[in-house]
Design brief:
The chain has a three-stranded antiparallel β-sheet. Strand 2 and strand 3 form a beta hairpin. The protein is globular. Helix 1 crosses helix 3 (34-46) and helix 2 packs across helix 3 (34-46). The chain has helices at residues 3-15, 23-30, 34-46, and strands at 21-22, 50-55, 58-63. The protein has 64 residues and is an alpha+beta fold. It has one domain (3-63): Arc Repressor Mutant, subunit A.
């Protein structure tokens, strides 16, 4: 994984509050597209650093 990917993952983790947040809201906080944030969230979920759950048509993320 390159440095830009590692930086993006760190940004996503640091922007997560103690509770849950929709991916779209997280993307707005970071100034990134929702698809980019979603991609990094899937990577972080595979690394067991966050959890993603569906609520209606939203995906909510939170730290583990």
């Amino acid at each position: 994984m390159n440095s830009a990917s590692a930086d993006a993952k760190k940004k996503v983790l640091s922007a997560l509050p103690s509770g849950e947040l929709p991916i779209r809201s997280l993307a707005e906080r970071l100034g990134m597209s929702a698809s980019t944030v979603s991609k990094y969230c899937l990577v972080l979920e595979a690394e067991r650093k966050i959890e993603i759950r569906k609520f209606g048509n939203m995906k909510l993320v939170r730290r583990k």
